[in-house]
Amino acid sequence: CTRPQVEVCTHWMRCECVLHSVLQMCRPDDISLAAVASNNIISINKDRDLFDSAKKAKALVVDGLDHKLTKLQKQCMLLNRCLLLLYTNQIDQLRGLIGKMKPSSDLPCLLHAAQKYRDRRIQDAIRLLQDRVVQHPDSSLTAQLTLAQIHLSQGHIEEACGVLQSLSTLQHFPGMVSSLTALYQRVDRTAKAKEVLDAAVAVWRQRKVQDESAKCLPELLQQYASFLMRHCSPEEAASVLEDLRQEKPSDIYVLAQLINAYSQFDARRAEQLSLSLPALDTGDSVVDVDAMEDAPSGFRYARRAVVTAASKHPSAQSAQSSPAVKEKERKKKKKKKGKLPKNYNPEVDPDPERWLPVRERSYARKKYKKTAGAVGKGTQGAAPDSPHASTEGLGRAEASRVSSSPSASSPKPQQQHHQQQQVQQPAGKAAQQAKKKQQGKKKKGKGW
Q1: Contacts of residue 411, Cβ cutoff 8 Å, sequence gap at least 6
Q2: Are 127 and 150 spatial neighbours (Cβ–Cβ below 8 Å)?
Q3: CA nearest 69: which of 36, 107, 26, 42?
Q4: pLDDT score of 1
Q5: What is the pLDDT of residues 68-109, one digit of tens each?
Q6: C-beta of residue 122 within 8 angstroms of C-beta of residue 137
Q7: pLDDT tens track for 194-212
Q8: pLDDT recorded at residue 247
Q9: What distances in angstroms separate CA 403 from CA 368, 388, 395, 415, one per listed residue?
Q10: What's the pLDDT at 150?
Q11: CA 171 vs CA 149, 161, 183, 188, 319: distances in Å
Q12: How far apart are CA 269 and CA 325, in angstroms?
């Protein structure tokens, strides 16, 4: 299957799940119809939505359902119930349901092997499947394919190829031949892959002689020839392609492959076969080789001219081709000069750092943070011990500037006069203000 085919199948499965869910919401009176819809939903969900699947599984065990279902429907429902129990790790109930299955079928063995594989007991699962193949070699096709899949999942490619080659009923079918060839090439067993292809071609040729129903022989021969060409065997590839050309005499692709094979060891035969190729259909046009060689190598994209009804008129075309119109169009197409800044000086070289941000230029001034030294230190309302303590937190330059400035050392006359007036205030007024503050504090304390 290709990826688009898988996507289409997944889409249809989702649509089917929605339809079955809608059908169950209608609550049909027929218990067999509800059971079939529930079984299909469980099959589509697989290991997802296990809680929903467990609820749907109740419709598969309703009383009186066995008489309304066919034998195949009962087997499918029983298998889906077993898989649901396997996904939910209900091993005891799973073993009870497996006992209801036919022992001649591969399903009980496959379910036991799946349970061991989920428990990471891979060797036990392989041994169980091998015992089943030995005991029932004719009816264990599913067990053999499962065994090959387990070998591939563990990276044992040669063991998987051995199991696949033991399938005599499927050994020479195109799908099996393709799988074996790819696996042998993966482990660099090209000779073994060639043997598989040789045997398959011989078998299908014999079948064609007997009943003329080997429809897959041409495709098999074509793939065999491609394999031989990839692995440097042009002589054998040419002989295979000769047989294929008898099957498809009008196929040009086969003829081209045959010419390619002969060109590597027999140029004369390749030239003879090339005469059978059809002529190139060049039409009535004549190709000018010189013009093609002189043509520019790259493609240029230009805006398409807008064609109006007036421009189609012959008089309008003659007017457009006049010299005055051409001169006007030339002036329109003239490029404008770029604008220069007002302070532009052509004699001075531009600043080489003009494309850098201002903060990254060499002549940018760095900004320093002014930090107040002793502000906020100590208890609230505490005064510095010395008159010079306020200058301790500043930098050296700031401290020297404060100490050496005349304004800091000697106050102005107006400030002196104001300080003298403050000192000469009567002491009684200050005492009255302090008394009023104490009374206000006492009044506030009454609420406590």
Answers
A1: 419
A2: no
A3: 36
A4: 53
A5: 888 888 888 888 889 888 988 888 888 888 888 887 788 888
A6: no
A7: 999 988 888 888 877 766 6
A8: 83
A9: 22, 9, 12, 19
A10: 92
A11: 16, 11, 14, 20, 82
A12: 67
Which residues neighbour 264 within 8 Å (Cβ) at sequence distance 6 or greater?
Answer: 234
Residue 271 has pLDDT above 70, yes or no: yes
2 — pLDDT class (breaks 50, 70, 90): low
Identify the band that residue 424 occupies on the pLDDT scale cut at 50, 70 and 90.
Answer: very low
- Measured in residues, the chain has a length of 448
Q: List, in order, residues 6 or more apart from 32 with CB less than 8 Å away.
A: 65, 68, 69
Instruction: Please tell me the predicted confidence (pLDDT) of residue 370.
Output: 64
Structure tokens at 261: 């094979």
Any idea which of 157-171, 296-310, 333-347 has the lowest mean pLDDT?
Answer: 296-310
